[in-house]
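Encode chain A's predicted structure.
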Amino acid sequence: MSRAARFLVLPLLLAPAACLTKIEVPDEIYSPCRATGSSDWSAHVETYLTAHNRPVTRRHLIVDGKVTVPGPNYSVSLDLGPLERLQPRVQQVIVRTTGTTSAGDAPTTVAVRGVFPPHKHYGPIRIRCGDGTLATIAAVTDTTQRP
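Encoded structure for chain A:
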C-alpha cells in the first residue's frame, strides 16, 4: 500500500473510534427550585485586609436575603451564576435548595448570605432559583475607596 493511500485510509479507520469516546456533559447550572418565596435582598461590596507581611486591601461582593422553603429540613445556599454581558452587565446569583418535606411541616424562612469574588463595576444582580427570577437588586452599594 502506498504512503498516500495509508494517509487516506487511516482517518477512515479512526472515525468509528471517535464515536466510542466518552463525552463530558456539564452539570446543570439551574437546579430545581423548592423555594416558595424570598425577601429582603441586598448586595454590597466590602473591603478586607489580607494576612500577608504587607497587608493588601481586597474586595468581595456580599449578597444577603431571606428564602422561604416548605419545611425546616431544607438547606439553602447561594452560588455565583453566569454573568450576562448586557449593558449594564447583570450578575446572576443562584439559590440552591436541598431537603425533604414531611407531612405537617410549616414553611420556614431561612437567612442566606453569599460571599463572591468582585468585579470592577457592578450593574444589577439577578437572584435566580430554578428557571425563575426571585428578585433583582438594582444597585450594589460600593463603599470601597479606590486610589
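DSSP finds one helix and eight strands in the chain.
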